[in-house]
Design a protein that fits this description.
Chain lengths: 608, 398
Amino acid sequence: MSILATKETHVVIQGGVAGVNAARRMGEFRHMIQQPLNVSAFVYPPDAGKTNEIVCGNRLLTIPVYKTVAEATANHPEINTSLVYIGADRAYAGTKEALDNSGIQVVSMITEGLPEKDSKLLGAYARKLGKVFNGPSSIGVLSAGECRLGVIGGAFDNLVACKLYRPGSFGVITKSGGLSNEIIWICSQFADGVTTAIGIGGDAYPGTDYVTYLEMFENDPQTKAVVVVGEMGGDLEERAAEWYGAKKRRIRLLAVVSGFCQESLPKGMKFGHAGAKEGLQGEGSARAKSEALKKAGAMVPETFGALGPAIKQTYEELVKSGEVTPIPELSEAEKPKLPRTVEQGMKDGDILVAPLIKSTISDDRGDEPLYEGYPASELINKGYDIPHIIGLLWDKRLVSKQEAEIIRRIIILSADHGPCVSGALTTIIGACAGTGLSQAVAAGLIMIGPRFGGAVTDAGRYFSHAIANNMSVDEFLGYMKKNVGPVPGIGHRVKSLRNPDKRVKELVGYVKSLDLATPHLDFALEVEKITAAKKDNLILNVDGTMAAVLVDLGFPVDSLNGFFVLSRTIGLIGHWADQKRQGSRLIRLFNYLVNYAAPARREVPPLK
Amino acid sequence: MAKVLEGPGMGLLRKWGLQTPNYAVVGSSEELEQLAQANDWLTKSSLVVKAHEALGSRFKLGLVKVGLDLKEAKAAAKEMLGRTVGTLTIREVIVSEAVDHSEEYYVAVKSTRDGADVMVANCGGVEVESNWDRVKRCPVVVGDTPTDKALEALAKEAGFTGDLVPQVADFARKLFLCFDNEDAQYLEINPVVRNAAGELVALDAVTLLDGDAKFRHPDWTFPFAAEFGRAYTTNEEEVMAVDSKVKGSVKLIEIPGGDTAMLPAGGGASVYYSDAVVARGGKLANYAEYSGDPPDWAVEVLTDKVCSLPGIKNIIVGGAIANFTDVKKTFGGIINAFRKAKTEGKLDGVRIWVRRGGPNEKQGLAAMTALKDEGFDIEVFDRRTPLTDIVDMALAKK
C-alpha cells in the first residue's frame, strides 16, 4: 500500500523536453518493478500529433502527444494523474485545465517560480473539487514498488541502492527535492525503506501541506512512521504539530526543521527556499516549529545528522513491537538492473558488433578530425595546405611541395569559366528559381559529364592505357577509333589551334618547366599534334591536360573528375551567391529561342 | 519576495488611487533645481530628503533630513549623494513634501495561505509596533475582494469612528486592490495620516512584490532592492546575473566576518548545512546554493566568488543525494574554479570538505579526490557519510 501515487496511477505529462525526461526516469522505475509504463500521454500543443519515445526496459515505446488534456483523457480514459512541466507563465492555465478534467484526481507541478497568487488559487480550486494539487516546485512523488511521479529518486542506481523496488514502512514528506532523496536513502539504510515519499515543494504556499499527507499516511496500514523535513517560515510545521497532537495517532512522527542558523545571522538576512521566510513577529522560526512538534509528541532530533539514528531507533522499536517484520535483502544477483546499451557493452568489452561501413581515410572520434591519422590542426601548424589534404583524402598520401603547387594551379585554372557554360548556367537558373545554395550548386554539378568537364577521368584512363601498353600515337588513335570513339580530352567547342586555350598553355608550360617525368602529358601533346592537324579544334583541352598531368603525378584514374568537380564548385557557389545578392528574378527561355518543331494544333480524336 | 524602494512603491500606490505626498527621485541636486522650476510644491512646502537606497536605519546614518526648504533640500541632496555606506554608494535621493498631521494610523495587506489579511490599526508609526494587539485583521480568501461592509466593520473594530470609518475602509479597499492586482506579498502603510483637507495620505510604505510574477507586469521597470537592509555586493550581483540566465539556480549571500565558506547544493540541504555550522559554533562567511542541474560554468562562477571570501578556513562543498543535478558536471565547474583560486593563492590554508550523492556521483567524487594529488587540502565523502558530518569534522579540527 502507499498513498497518492499507486499501482492504479496513470499519468499524463503536460510539458515539453523536461516532461519527456521525467517520463524516461519513470520508465526506468517501471522497469525496475517489472511493470508496464504508466505514462499514457503527453500534452504539449507545439508537438500535438507527434509522439515521444520512452524507453521502458529494453523496449522503446511511442507515447502520443496531444494538444489538450481533454483529448488525452478522451483517448486514454485510464489517466487519473497529471504532472505539470510547464513554464511559470503558462503553468496556471495548464494546471487549471488538468484540475477541470473529471478523470484527473491528482496534479503535481514541478514548475519553479510560479507566482504565489497562482499557487494559492490552484490550491483552493483543487480543495474545492476534492482533488490534490501538489507543488509547485515539487520534485514529485514516489511510492516504493508501485509508482514514481517525476524524477524523484534520481538515477536508476540510486533507486536500487534505496531499495525502492519494494515498500518499506516509512512515509516521507519534504519541501526540498534533494532532501527527499536523502531521507529515502537514510530510511533504506537505517530502516526498511519507504512506502511513499512526497515533495510538497519549497514555495511559501504550496497547494497541499504536511497535514494533507499525514492524514493519508494515517490511513495507509503499510506506513508505520512518517519523517517530515521542515523549514522555517510559514506555518505548515505548526499545523502538522497541531494535527499530530490533536489525538492519538497510529503513525509515529519524526521531524527536523531547518533554519536555526537564522538566530545568529545579521538581522533581516534570510535564505533558502522561497517559503523559508520568518514571519514578522518571529512566528515560523525553526525553534518555534521544533518546539511545537516536540510538544505534539513527535520525535525531533536536534540536527539533521541525528535523524538517521532516530529513524533507526524507531525502526527497531517497530520490529520489537511486531508492527514491522524485517524484509529479507536481495542478493546482488537478484537486484534489478537496467538493460545495458550497446555502447556500454562495448565499453565493458563483452559485446562484438559487426561494423556497417569501413573508413580508411579519416577519424572523427577524438577532439579533432584525423586525416589519414594526421590531426588537422597539426597539418595547419606545419604549413600544409588544401592540395595536401586532397592528397591525403583522395590518394591516402602526403603530396610533395611541387605536386601541391601543380594541384593548386589546376584548381585556380578550373575554378570558373563564366556564366554561359552548362554548369554555371544551370546553377544560375536554379538561383533565379529561388532554390538554396546546395540545391542550385548540385544542379550545376549534375551537368558535369562527358561533354562538360567530366572527361578528365576518361582521358586519364585512355592515356594511361596507351602508356601502359607502349602504344604509339597511331596505334592509340586506331584503338580509340575502333573501341571508343572520339578521344576524351581532345577537342573544344570554341577553342582551336588559332585560338588556343590559355589555361592549357599555362599548365603545360609550368609542368614542363619542372624537373618532372611527364610521360602521359608528353604522349597527350603528341596525340594533339596529329588530331589538330586533321581538324584545328581537335586540340588537347583542359580536361585532357589535367588528366595527363594528374596521372603523371600518380593520382588514381577514378579520382580525376574530382579535381574538376572540386574546382568548379568554387565557381558555382560564386554564381549562386552572385544571383542571390542581386535579388535576381525567375528566368525562362524566350520562345523565339526555341524551334517549335512539334505538330501544329489538331483535333483530339474520340477516345477508343 | 522582491522589495521595492519608496519611489516606485509610491508609484504603485498612486496607480491604485491612494494619495501619497508629492515626491521626486533625483540623482543630483541640479535635477532637483530643474524640477523646482516646474513643480510648485518644491518651492512652497516643507520638504523631506531621504537616501533612496536599500538601507536600514537611514535616520541614524543621517540619511533622512526633515523640515527643509528647497535650498536646504538641495544641500542635503548634495551631501547625501555619492556618500558610501559599507559597499553601497548613494546614487539617488527621494525628496517628498512634508504633510502636516496630528493622527497616525496603520493599514497593511499581508499574504496568507488562504489569501490575504487586511490589517488596520488606529495608531501608527512606532506606536503600532509596541501595540500589536490594536491591529485588527480581516481575512480575504484568494480570488475574493473584501466588501465595503466588511472593511467598515474592520475600521470600526480597530476603533475608528464617524467619517473616518468609510475613509479608512476606502483606503484599505484601494490598498487591497493594489495588493491583489500588483502581485504583492506585503504592503504596509505606516503611517497613514490625515492631511489638512481631511484626506488620508500614505506617508511611508513597505512594498514587497512577488518577483516571480514579473512576467505579467511589463510596467515593473524598477529594480528590486536587497531585502536585508544593505545593498547587494558586487559578487552577489554577479551571481544574480548568472542566476537569471541559466537553467537551475545559483545563489550567494556574503556574511562579513565569517570563516566557514559554504558551497552546498540544494535549497533545502544548504540551510541544514548552515544550521550545522552555527550549531558547531562556527561562523558563516556566506550562504550559497546551486540547484536544478545548473550549467558547470554557472557553478564555476559561484565557486570563484566563494573562494574569494576573505579570511576563510574551510569550504563546505556539501549536498544531499541529487535527483537530477549531475554531480560530475557540477563538480567539474567547482574544480575549475578551485584550480584557478589555488594558483591565485586564495586557497592557502583553506581546507575543503566534500560530501555528495546523485547522478554520476562516482566520477564526480573521484575527480574531487584526485585534487589531493594536485596539492589541495581536500577531504571527500560519499553518500555513506551522513549529510552534515563534514561540518562536524571541519569545525572539530580547528
